[in-house]
Amino acid sequence: MAESNKWVVEDINRTTPNLAAIRKFSTGDRAGLRFENFLQEYQVDLILHAISKIGIEYYEGDDKAGGIVRKGKLGPNFFRFKADPGEYFRRTQVYQEIFDQQILGLVNFFPRVQEVASKMFSLGPGVAEHQGRHMMKFTVRVLPEAPIHRDWMPGENAGLSFAPQIKEQFAWNIYLKTPKSGGQTRIYNEQDLAQAGNESEYFEVTPRVGDLIIFRTTQAHSVLPSDGERLTLSGFFGTTPEKVLFWV
Ligand SMILES: O=C(O)CCC(=O)C(=O)O
To answer: From the CB of 185, is ligand 1 less than 6 Å away?
Structure first.
């Protein structure tokens, strides 16, 4: 592949995975990976049915770029409760049990996401813990658009005990519903947010239902405005010297 084409999200096909692309992404040489049809249609339908029974909670939240946006979520994410970690852990206990029974009991996709990350970095998988309490494994999210931002948990000074161990942070998103148009994830070849908006190179990936997309959250990234619902299973993982740890 030509030097100039390196900043791309590579498609990883289920039957013949492009191991060279996975290796290149793991060393920072690619924008991201798209695992095509990570979930099959019937699995997505089962999960959507479970989600509709539990119900999505809508709230006004910080968009990490100085704005407030209406977000839809199922299950807590730490960033939302950073001022009240006790509430995050209370909700985690409640929602993790609901997710285990009502979602993972039907389609146990989460160990497969962990396996992808674990193989990529040759590290065992784990769920992050803080003072003996598990973090949430994943969230269900309605995110119609997101401004250019980065996510770097160790930089949020949230006091989580696993934070200092994190070497690199990644986002994973499995698409359950995609909008009629828009909603592409744009990943910049730039970490500096001010520079990113300023003619820096980027790659736009158009998600499809069932795809799993993984990228480094320390690269500036955004979600283009969507026309229609955009629903994902989402979370973060980070590499540490011993494990790949998951949280949200
Ligand atoms: O939903 C997406 O495609 C990416 C959302 C995002 O900004 C993130 O996961 O940090």
So the answer is: yes
Q: Which atom of ligand 1 is nearest to the CA of 143?
A: 1
Q: Which domain holds residue 95?
A: 31-247
Residue that is written with structure tokens 């979520």 in the block: 73
Could you tell me if residue 139 is inside a domain? Answer: yes
Within-domain flag for 19: no
The model carries a pTM of 0.94
Whether residue 17 lies inside any domain: the answer is no
Yes or no: say if 73 and 139 are a contact pair by the CB < 8 Å rule.
yes
The answer for residues whose C-beta is within 8 angstroms of residue 124's C-beta and 6 or more apart is: 118, 242, 243, 244
140 lines ligand 1 (CB under 6 A): no
Cα–Cα distance measured from residue 205 to residue 31, given in angstroms and rounded to the nearest whole number: 10
What single-letter amino acid sits at 5?
N
Cβ of 153 less than 6 Å from ligand 1? no
pLDDT per residue rounded down to tens, the chain (248 residues): 445 479 999 999 988 989 999 999 999 999 999 999 999 999 999 999 999 999 898 888 888 888 888 888 899 999 989 999 999 999 999 999 999 999 999 999 999 999 999 999 999 999 999 999 999 999 999 999 999 999 999 998 889 999 999 999 999 999 999 999 999 999 999 999 989 988 889 999 998 999 999 999 999 999 999 999 999 999 999 999 999 999 99
CATH code assigned at 80: 2.60.120.620
Q: Domain for residue 181, yes or no?
A: yes
